[in-house]
């Protein structure tokens, strides 16, 4: 009972998301696997996937205080690994998923061991350099046969049961489950003794070392967990789009994670979740209303949010709660 | 006579500038040993070399008869060496209790890697943290954010963090710096209590001469990176070289 009460908002949200496809179908009178219901299942599935990507970034930036400019490399790696294995190697999806996890772990260990030797801006630069390298490789014509070079890896054969086109509702629920599990996992980590050390590192790394923490190991753990999660999100993204392309590895994709995290509120897990929903849905809305000029307007919205809600949605919400409590 | 800490020609250069110059310091078990000297004498740098914040350019550090030169910083608490910082150096955006709890948790490396457990369930850590907070007089403030504390309380928190690590040797770098004068005796009484009750050894850097003369068992005077004199408070007061170089005949 206590568990239910403590997590009431989360459970209510999960319930709403489970009912959502049926509710839309009821409201519009359209069948659940076509038209408006199908469209909105797709929109939300993308939000769920992006949310996992944003949460993984927040674990690094918001909790451990590691500002990586190479996070897209994991997102892209997940997409390419699953794409190549399904399309060219004929692997099953579970086997490919395992390969995504293992390759992301290896990649993040490699990047972590290299980049975590330096700090601050230097770390940011090293991660950026690695990501740029991956981006260049993805566009290299030498590997066109495997990666599709600048056109990307097209027509990934997604198993029929998960086809985002034909089994949209299934895809929706798989994405939802993926999001819930990832959120739960990261929340467990941030509330654990290990997570507390990450926050200590963010607040004052020298002091964390001086009281006895081998901060390198903790930061490496954060990088590996974040790397694996971002890669899985990238894999889901590739399954949704039926392709993996160089844009997934581009700096703009890292910036996207940064924006979702900051807008929602760094260092809170519901923040990036909200941020992902906000960016994806607002982007869609602005695109419908203003066409290709939408990124310009989005830039203005972003500036306004940073100016007026410097700690993001969750930061503003928390300080509102605090003020209300102080008044009472 | 057992020396808990001993340094041999400990030297630290910054480029061509020698901040710490062939220092041989011996600190006896269970004493409060003060390190005094004018601004820029190299006191903090010497602390940094002893406590592994900075590697020495050359020289060795022995602790409990073992050579510990080159030990990584994060191993120092396990050895029993803890230090406070001249500039307040706490975890700002977490609670006062969490600051100290983290230091307790750090003594249990295995618990710190249990990423599937809830930190709040490890209540014995919180109890020990509260104990340290009570010792320094911060009980009642544990739920506040550390950055919101007044300066004097931040200095006390600094000390509580240190205590939570249960060190045998404490390096205190100007623990009273920036504190209101009337708060100083209370903090010094706490420090003295900590030393006496845990059979701990303290090396204290302090500019307040009254405090130094009153509480020290021994004093070393550092001047331009070198040890100028060493002795009991009375010997130091009577030392001509010290008078000339530092105390300026002030007392
Ligand atoms: N990281 C550094 N790089 C270059 N020079 C340094 C560095 N740290 C200290 N110094 C220099 O070394 C000398 C000794 O500094 P240190 O901080 O050890 O003195 P101190 O005795 O602690 O002085 P204070 O009483 O002012 O705290 C000073 O001249 C200082 O400028
Ligand atoms: Mg100093």
Which structural class is indicated by helix and strand composition of chain B?
alpha/beta
Mean pLDDT of chain A: 92
Helix content of chain A: over 70%
Radius of gyration of chain A (CA) equals 20 Å
End-to-end distance of chain A: 28 Å
Q: Can you list the ligands bound to this structure?
A: adenosine-5'-triphosphate, magnesium ion
What is the CA-based Rg of chain B, rounded? Answer: 18 Å
Principal-axis shape of chain A: globular
Average pLDDT rating of chain B:
90
Strand content of chain A: under 5%
Q: Any low-confidence stretches of chain A, pLDDT <50, length ≥5?
A: none
Order of helices and strands of chain B: EEEEHEEHEHHHHEHEHEEHH
Number of strand elements of chain A: 0
The percentage helix of chain B is: 25-40%
Low-confidence stretches of chain B: none
Question: Can you tell me the overall shape of chain B?
Answer: globular
Quote the beta fraction of chain B: 15-25%
Describe the protein in words:
- The complex is a heterodimer of chains A (328) and B (251).
- Chain A is mainly α and 328 residues long.
- Chain A has a single domain, classed as ABC transporter involved in vitamin B12 uptake, BtuC.
- Chain A has 15 helices and no strands.
- Chain A has helices at 2-6, 8-28, 35-63, 72-87, 93-115, 121-139, 144-147, 168-190, 193-203, 205-210, 215-241, 251-264, 270-290, 294-308, 312-327.
- Chain B is 36% helix and 24% strand.
- A six-stranded mixed β-sheet of chain B has the order 7-8-9-4-10-11, with helices on both faces. In chain B, strands 1, 2, 3, 5 and 6 form a five-stranded antiparallel β-sheet that branches.
- In chain B, α3 (96-106) runs parallel beside α6 and α5 crosses α6 (151-164).
- The relative contact order of chain B is 0.18.
- The structure holds adenosine-5'-triphosphate and magnesium ion (MG).
- Magnesium ion is lined by residues 43-44, 86 of chain B.
């Amino acid at each position: 009972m206590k568990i239910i009460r403590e997590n009431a908002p989360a459970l209510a949200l999960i319930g709403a998301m489970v009912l959502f496809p049926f509710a839309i179908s009821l409201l519009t009178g359209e069948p659940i696997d076509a038209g408006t219901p199908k469209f909105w299942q797709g929109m939300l599935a993308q939000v769920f996937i992006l949310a996992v990507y944003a949460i993984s970034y927040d674990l690094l930036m918001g909790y451990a205080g590691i500002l990586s400019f190479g996070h897209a490399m994991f997102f892209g790696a997940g997409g390419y690994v699953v794409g190549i294995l399904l399309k060219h190697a004929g692997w099953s999806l579970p086997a490919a998923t395992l390969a995504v996890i293992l390759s992301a772990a290896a990649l993040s260990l490699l990047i972590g061991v290299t980049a975590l030797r330096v700090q601050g801006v230097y770390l940011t630069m090293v991660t950026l350099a690695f990501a740029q390298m991956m981006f260049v490789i993805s566009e290299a014509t030498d590997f066109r046969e495997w990666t599709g070079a600048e056109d990307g890896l097209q027509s990934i054969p997604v198993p029929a049961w998960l086809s985002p086109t034909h089994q949209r509702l299934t895809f929706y629920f798989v994405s939802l489950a993926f999001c819930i599990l990832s959120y739960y996992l990261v929340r467990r980590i941030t509330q654990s003794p290990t997570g507390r050390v990450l926050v200590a590192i963010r607040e004052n790394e020298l002091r964390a070392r001086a009281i006895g923490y081998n901060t390198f190991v903790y930061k490496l753990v954060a990088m590996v967990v974040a790397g694996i999660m971002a890669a899985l999100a990238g894999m889901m993204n590739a399954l949704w789009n039926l392709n993996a392309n160089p844009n997934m590895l581009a700096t703009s994709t890292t910036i996207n994670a940064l924006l979702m995290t900051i807008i929602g509120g760094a260092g809170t897990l519901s923040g990036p979740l909200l941020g992902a929903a906000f960016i994806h849905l607002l982007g869609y809305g602005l695109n419908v209303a203003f066409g290709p000029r939408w990124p310009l307007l989005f830039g203005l919205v972003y500036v306004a949010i940073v100016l007026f809600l410097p700690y993001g949605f969750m930061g503003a919400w928390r300080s509102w709660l605090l003020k209300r409590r102080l008044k009472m | 006579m057992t020396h808990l800490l001993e340094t041999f020609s400990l030297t630290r250069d910054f480029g061509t500038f020698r901040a710490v110059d062939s220092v041989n310091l011996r600190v006896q078990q269970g004493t409060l040993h003060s390190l005094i000297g004018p601004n820029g004498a190299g006191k903090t740098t010497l602390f940094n070399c002893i406590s592994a914040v900075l590697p020495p350019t050359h020289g060795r550090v022995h602790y409990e008869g073992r050579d510990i030169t080159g030990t990584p910083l994060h191993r120092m608490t396990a050895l029993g060496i803890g230090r406070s910082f001249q500039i307040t150096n706490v975890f700002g955006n977490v609670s006062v209790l969490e600051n100290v709890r983290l230091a307790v948790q750090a003594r249990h490396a295995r618990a710190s890697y249990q990423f599937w457990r809830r930190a709040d369930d490890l209540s014995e850590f919180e109890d020990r943290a509260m104990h340290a907070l009570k010792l320094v007089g911060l009980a009642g403030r544990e739920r506040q954010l550390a950055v919101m504390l007044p300066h004097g309380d931040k200095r006390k928190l600094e000390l509580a963090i240190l205590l939570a690590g249960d060190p045998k040797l404490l390096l205190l770098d100007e623990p009273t710096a920036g504190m209101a004068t009337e708060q100083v005796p209370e903090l010094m009484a706490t420090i003295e209590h900590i030393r006496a009750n845990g059979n701990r050894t303290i090396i204290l850097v302090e500019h307040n001469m009254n405090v130094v003369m009153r509480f020290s068992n021994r004093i070393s005077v550092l001047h331009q990176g070198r040890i100028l004199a060493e002795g009991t408070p009375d010997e130091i007061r009577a030392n001509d070289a010290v008078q000339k170089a530092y105390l300026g005949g002030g007392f």
